[in-house]
Amino acid sequence: MRRSRSGLIMRRAVIAPPRGLPEPMVCVGCGATYSHRRWTRKAEVKRDDYEPKQTAQGTLCLACKQACDGVPGGFVYLSGEFLGNHHDEIERPLRKEAERNAQDNPLARIMGWEDTDNQLIVKTTTEHLAQRLGHALEKAFDGDVRYDFSHENKFARVYWERGV
Ligand SMILES: [Zn+2]
Questions:
Q1: How far is the CA of 31 from the centre of ligand 1 (A)?
Q2: pTM, full prediction
Q3: For residue 39, how far is its CA from the centre of ligand 1 (angstroms)?
Q4: Which residue in 106, 121, 143, 149 could disulfide with 41, CB within 3.0 to 4.6 Å?
Q5: Residue 73 phi/psi, 5° resolution?
């Protein structure tokens, strides 16, 4: 109970960070900066904002926290014969989509790739990114996509499959 409660708060914070977070704040994990009530990627921060006035030591952004804890917000499961023959081709639009999405929300990231004999599993920090990756796969390669959401827990599983 306690766990799902804190999980929910964490994910909500990704979209709308709570008031009262010290600004600017820099994540020690990835360098993302929290300023003007939003997270920005390091490279996008304006020069004026770049020198943090108060940096909370050991502060991690929510995405890094999630990566540390190993708690994804979404999974994308890829399978089918097409995957075996086009592995690299398939990864490319996924990375591209994640990069594009990171411009809107720098805390939405691919957390990890798990490669097994006949399945590729992509873990994402947000359920929204998992959904976007599903759309990207559909757009690039067709195939069948199934979305499985838990709105209550803000969690998504996306299944993509294509034959030859
Ligand atoms: Zn971070």
A1: 6
A2: 0.74
A3: 9
A4: 106
A5: -95, -10
